[in-house]
Amino acid sequence: CTPGRQSLLFKLYCLAVMTLVAATYTIALRYTRTTDNELYFSTTAVCITEVIKLLLSVGLLAKETGSLGRFKASLSENVLGSPKELVKLSVPSLVYAVQNNMAFLALSNLDAAVYQVTYQLKIPCTALCTVLMLNRTLSKLQWISVFMLCGGVTLVQWKPAQATKVVVEQNPLLGFGAIAIAVLCSGFAGVYFEKVLKSSDTSLWVRNIQMYLSGIIVTLVGTYLSDGADIKEKGFFYGYTYYVWFVIFLASVGGLYTSVVVKYTDNIMKGFSAAAAIVLSTIASVLLFGLQITLTFALGALLVCVSIYLYGLPRQDTTSVQQGETTPKERLIGV
């Protein structure tokens, strides 16, 4: 194989593995939520996931350096001796924390259907951040495929509204404001991390260690702010089973593969991969849980598949940080 073909095959391999891991994770998560009598604290699971990702990254860095001396030198130089880099990599963790809180606030103040539709705007927002922050261009066909993917994911995840007698006081203006912030945070954080990864020759595993260290602190704070009283009463590992640990392990591996995908492809391709995982996990749920396929799901899955095909048609490489000046109009619509 030529170097270009080998690079393409590696990118496709990363995307395929991420898609399969994400689909398996979704299925396993659904199983734990439908079979366990005592539900675990999801906030503690997120915290443990960050710890496992940190440990896996340390192990992979040790393997990459090849010797204990070089491993210690790498940690000393890039982690312990680089507080500025730690601060730089804490930005995605903090922004993701804001995103999660804004998404919860939006869900509390918007109808579920409105939330499902508007939150998928994070897909074109990611594409826009990619264009503006990384100086890339997307063709008209790629923009069409991005918005088609947005519509497809919305239909795949669509659940008809159910009538309820419970009256919940909502503030739509607050909800739309929160969803706008969540969408912007999602696009910015992902593209910011991609820019940091691709703007230097620093090891991917070093970057992961730097980010997960701050991620552990952020998730620990969030855990005790959300469930601190219940955790003190029932324990940090309340409700954990072998299946829960399996879900946490899948989430950790998926997180590592996500960083690999961002490093060697881009955040837009990550979005397409995540959409494909949603479709695959839903199809698998038909066999495992008796889930019924609806017309909206079938149409959404078709849109997802077509959008992936259309996005792959242009031959322009959008996976590296481009140098040089282009006008905003040229970057938004490359022909």
From TrEMBL:
Mind listing the UniProt keywords for this protein, alphabetically? Membrane, Sugar transport, Transmembrane, Transmembrane helix, Transport
Q: What is the membrane topology here?
A: Multi-pass membrane protein
Is Transmembrane helix among the key words of this record?
yes
Give an example GO molecular function. pyrimidine nucleotide-sugar transmembrane transporter activity
Extent of the signal sequence: none
Q: List where in the cell it is found.
A: Golgi apparatus membrane
Superkingdom per UniProt: Eukaryota
Provide one Gene Ontology cellular component. Golgi membrane
Q: Where are the transmembrane segments?
A: 12-33, 39-62, 141-158, 173-193, 205-225, 237-260, 272-289, 295-313
Q: Which PANTHER family match?
A: NUCLEOTIDE-SUGAR TRANSMEMBRANE TRANSPORTER
Family assignment from sequence similarity: Belongs to the nucleotide-sugar transporter family. SLC35A subfamily.
Official protein name in the record = Solute carrier family 35 (CMP-sialic acid transporter), member 1
Q: Which organism is it from?
A: Nannospalax galili
| Taxonomic lineage from the root | Eukaryota, Metazoa, Chordata, Craniata, Vertebrata
Gene name in the database record = Slc35a1
